[in-house]
Amino acid sequence: MGRRNLRAGNMRRRAGDPMREFDALPPPLRAWLREAALPWSPKSALRIWQKACREGDTEEALRRLTAVEAGTLARDGVGAER
Question: What is the rounded distance in angstroms from the CA atom of residue 54 to the CA atom of residue 51?
Answer without folding.
Answer: 5
